[in-house]
């Protein structure tokens, strides 16, 4: 007889009659030997002990620290590799192979403008740390993803060689690329998380089976030919990764079924299913950004999450800030922009909010980041991990210091009520005055 024990959270069943006292699921193949009540009791006890170990503290259970780090490191390494591997072209309806690197943000435009020595800095996950860190990225790699085939990459050729986003057409192309990158990244991330979860599940099941065999003894195992142990939604890691997969899947579905078709129609000049708000500010910001985030709106007591495509594109003359939602959410986006831009340094605070609470897909001038005091850098990176805020809640720590410094000297800043001016000035209080 071959036995397989399936441990499911909160499910109390036992298929054969003899096993009704069981709190676990036993699937037996072949009906030669049945478990006696006493054996069932022993098995239940052994599984109880295992469950405590797995659900409370899955990581030490997995093995040594080295094994765990190895698993983590491989997963990020694979993710990086997958982001450079050609895939099917993301242009709707195209089945051709993509080139490995399409830029989301124009290399010749905003990226070159903010670069120093052909480099920018960007947040990322180091394989040996738990949170975000900032690393230097070369201009050839910044914002790239496996996006379009040769033919569709050429759609952006003219746009790529201009240095500034000026026309409505430029905005439409930029938003389309942002949506495509988000789709590609999320597809790759979901596949990657699934792979890591499956590896984790397999490791946990194998380890648990070894422990079970030890606990039950060789005779018991041989008599019932116990072979497989499958854990289903038992460990916190399993439940956690399934939740991440579900959340990412939901955003991906919205992008694939709503934003991408709407953006492609707009690209063809056919329909207005998207709504863009563009704000041009006179200060060149030393960062660029392209991603997706959400804010919440209370619509007559109904709480609605509004997905928004974000772009911040600086040039030497000005910075173009673009927020895009589905056209049906037009009034929500207008309310949001009004609220954000209505405060002192509104555009600056909104961009900083997008950087910390919206998307981690941004780039900054290296010296601008290095000028932020270390303790504030650490705070910004830690706050980026806090998912309890949306871009609807203004971030109150300075990220773009040089622009804030400059804005604080303007006459209109001095005309603000003193407490409001002071609140903005105090964001830079930790800077060393030379
Ligand atoms: Zn194509």
Give a structural overview:
The protein is of the alpha+beta class and about 425 residues long. It has helices at about 35-55, 60, 65-80, 105-115, 150-155, 155-160, 170-215, 220-225, 235-265, 330-340, 345-360, 365-370, 375-385, 400-410, 410-415, 420-425; strands spanning about 1-10, 25-30, 100-105, 120-125, 130-140, 145, 225-230, 275-280, 285-300, 300-315, 320-325, 360-365. Among the domains are: about 1-65 and about 195-235, no CATH class; about 275-430, no CATH class. The protein contains 16 helices and 12 strands. A hairpin with a 4-residue loop joins strand 10 (about 300-315) and strand 11 (about 320-325). Helix 1 (about 35-55) crosses helix 7 (about 170-215), helix 3 runs antiparallel to helix 7 and helix 7 packs antiparallel against helix 9 (about 235-265). Residues about 10-20 have low confidence and may be disordered.
Strand order of the largest sheet: 8-11-10-9-12
Which structural class is indicated by helix and strand composition? alpha+beta
Largest sheet: 5 strands, antiparallel
Distance between the termini: 80 Å
> Shape from CA axes?
elongated
Summarize the structure.
The chain has helices at residues 37-56, 58-62, 65-82, 107-114, 150-153, 157-161, 168-216, 218-224, 236-267, 330-341, 346-358, 366-370, 374-383, 401-408, 411-414, 418-425; strands at residues 2-8, 25-29, 102-103, 119-125, 132-138, 144-145, 226-232, 274-281, 287-299, 302-314, 319-326, 362-364. The chain has 434 residues and is α+β, with helices and mostly antiparallel strands.
